[in-house]
Task: structure prediction
Amino acid sequence: MVDLNTLPEEEDRAPGADDGMDPERFAAICKALGHPVRVRILEYLKKIDRCVCGEIVDILPLAQSTVSQHLKVLKSAGLIMGEVNGPATCYCLDRQALAGFKALVYRL
Amino acid sequence: MVDLNTLPEEEDRAPGADDGMDPERFAAICKALGHPVRVRILEYLKKIDRCVCGEIVDILPLAQSTVSQHLKVLKSAGLIMGEVNGPATCYCLDRQALAGFKALVYRL
DNA sequence: CTATTTAATCGCCGACCTACGATAAAGAAG
DNA sequence: CTTCTTTATCGTAGGTCGGCGATTAAATAG
Result:
């Protein structure tokens, strides 16, 4: 028996159900992935698991403010998480969200 | 053992190979999917396999020119194909391209 | 040939995106 | 307290996006 309490809005996905996903939410995630820099950031975060923002600034030929904005976009889309750690901020991939996105892509 | 010399463009994807994809191309496809209307069009084309442009205009609350533009974006991204059929144009999903995209997402 | 139908393209507009430098905020270090 | 480090935010400039109506192009119908 499935616990319905823990899933307020996203119906419990039977394996064969290929009924409508939410195009708005799906498109929003795709939009966040719709920039090469953000894709690179995501790949980097997957590789090293977690890192501080400045590290990402170092590997990209972009200003710190620009990188910060891209991180914000990824975070708003729910693809990454950031926790403040002293004066720095530590970012990491939200692997659960990424898995959810993959599931949506697969029913495409 | 992996042959590093050959990698003309789209190597035949060994199951375990999660080396670098092209972030530019991947982002370009995501960008095309980054609008709810285009996601809906893609889902519709998947359902009915092929249809004429006007049919898509009918199911969407948008002007014909707007729909035409969205179709152009999807076509430029390589996700759909369109063939002229008399005065009309018949669109259909490029299932191979979609499968390729899914493969990219899965190595994300 | 002249309509009619169907799509694509053009031009316009407001909104959003992406880059940057400058500035603000907040903790660590002296 | 002051300074340094690290990140987020602001403001701005140029470009792109997304919508529309109007127009053009191409094939069919009469």
The interface with chain B takes residues 20, 23-24, 26-28, 30-40, 42-43, 46, 98, 101-102, 105-106, 108 of chain A (CB under 8 Å). Residues 1-14 of chain A have pLDDT under 50 and may be disordered.
